[in-house]
Amino acid sequence: MTALPLPPSHRQLGQSDIAISPLAWGMWRLADAGCNAADAARLVHAALDAGITLFDTADIYGFGGASGFGDAEAMLGTVLAREPALRAQMVLATKGGIRPSRPYDQSAAYLASAIDASLRRLNVETIDLYQIHRPDILAHPQEVARTLEDAMAAGKVRTLGVSNFTVQQIEALNHFLVSPLAATQPQISPLRIACFENGELDQAMRLGLTPLAWSPLGGGRLLDPETPREAEVASVLDRIGGEQGVSRSVAAYGWLMAHPAGIVPIVGSQNPDRIAEGAQALAMRWTREDWYAVLVAARGEKLP
Ligand code: NAP
Description:
10 strands, TIM Barrel, globular, binds NADP nicotinamide-adenine-dinucleotide phosphate, about 300 residues, about 40% helix, two-stranded antiparallel ribbon
């Protein structure tokens, strides 16, 4: 059986001229992992050494930590202040629009202030990808679009993205944007396969959005399956990974990357060796049989 194409060594971020690595590294767990700035710098270097150039954080990450809201951004900001040369090596993505402790807010005044606050914490002049973290049902997409466009015009933001938006919410926001969205960030993993069949990835391909997969290992559950279905997914990934000399987690990244939408898994590990290991997914060869075997295990039933 013919193998599916290998993932490219670089992808474009949406239809922008920004090149990104086929894997990203995420900092959701950075503050919770009890990292100090030196630990965080080691992780940033581990990601760069592994060829990862796309770095994903959010203003809400680390909320509840030592300094409250913004801990993860502030930690990265400290790393960048100590080693300014790192900034040019990374494509920096962050998110806003969730207010502690959780009404969503994308009103013009709040969103504009959130972008400024992220820039300050990160110690940067520009955010390469600014994402709306979760949709605010009370914000009109035209107002959100205007605020985001203003941030772009001011040079604060280079490209725009959304996370956890429905197909219709993406369509509505994109309609009002002059600079179309570059990325969408849904939860995708071999344990979370909704977007393969609910139109989200089809829309990403149609609009030229880069899909960034959050929790690509199901938040770690793929390594510690809890149900018979999860155990079956793990066992199929182990079989395919074993045949190619890679681990279950690498096989999971490779499975996502083999999709034609160009999914970029966001590696969530805060362990340098596990971050480095992710790069092995670029060399994985997938046949249709193997790819669909994972999907069938994830569905828990045969294909029709
Ligand atoms: P994940 O890769 O699904 O899970 C990572 C977790 O799995 C870590 O706790 C990691 O622990 C653990 N793990 C256990 N064995 C592992 C192995 N062999 N290899 C790798 N990890 C292993 O990703 P995630 O952390 O849940 O999410 C990834 C990123 O997605 C976040 O950092 C964030 O950028 C983004 N995200 C976005 C949203 C959103 O709403 N947009 C929500 C959640 C996450 P160790 O650290 O000990 O390796």
